[in-house]
Specification:
There is one protein chain. The chain is an alpha+beta fold. It has one domain (5-162). The protein is built from 5 helices and 6 strands, in the order E-E-E-H-E-H-H-E-H-E-H. It has a two-stranded antiparallel ribbon. A two-stranded antiparallel sheet has the order 2-3. Strand 2 (46-47) and strand 3 form a beta hairpin. The longest helix is centred in the middle third of the chain and has 11 residues, at 106-116.
Length: 171
């Protein structure tokens, strides 16, 4: 997850005089990393223009490879979601999904498409609408996000609740 460009390459070593510390003792992070998938970034890409590089979330790169301004049709949506590799079980849901059982069902694809279309019939969805729908799921009180473009991420609980599912059911 790429957050605040202005933070710079912070070492996050708990220096008492660090300019990137928050009043409560936390940090304003530039980049968040996890060993297992943990967040759903709510942006198409972020480029810091320095040695930290550019981040394109897996969902964005697969679903909307042309980035901002692009659209995805219903048929392309299904093919692209099904074609996404399942690299690792994400943090959050209870139970385990094995890679050989990771392909979403037709029902799940239909429901996700309907949700992306905001419950309306649609033949295609614009990239900005997808980002907006994900951001609407966020429970983060900072509605502007790190760079003022809306909430930066979702965790499993927010995603599941946003889709109307019980977030801690077993799979």
């Amino acid at each position: 997850m790429y957050l605040e460009k202005e933070v710079g390459v912070c070492c996050h070593s708990a220096c008492s005089d660090c300019e990137w510390r928050t009043p409560d003792g936390g940090y304003r992070f530039d980049i968040l990393k996890a060993t297992a998938p943990k967040w759903l970034p709510c942006y198409l890409s972020r480029d810091f223009g320095d040695e930290r590089g550019c981040h394109v979330p897996a969902w964005s790169g697969a679903l909307l490879p042309d980035g901002a301004g692009s659209v995805v049709s219903r048929a392309d949506f299904e093919a692209r979601v099904v074609g996404m590799p399942f690299d690792a079980m994400p943090m959050g849901p209870k139970g385990t999904i094995k890679s050989d059982a990771s392909q979403p069902s037709a029902e799940a694809l239909d429901l996700l498409w309907e949700w992306l279309c905001d419950g309306k019939e649609c033949a295609e969805v614009e990239a900005e609408a997808v980002v907006r729908r994900f951001q609407e799921m966020s429970l983060d009180e900072n509605r502007a996000g790190a760079i003022g473009e809306g909430p930066d991420m979702l965790v499993w609980k927010e995603f599941a609740k946003g889709l109307g599912a019980a977030p801690f059911e077993r799979f």
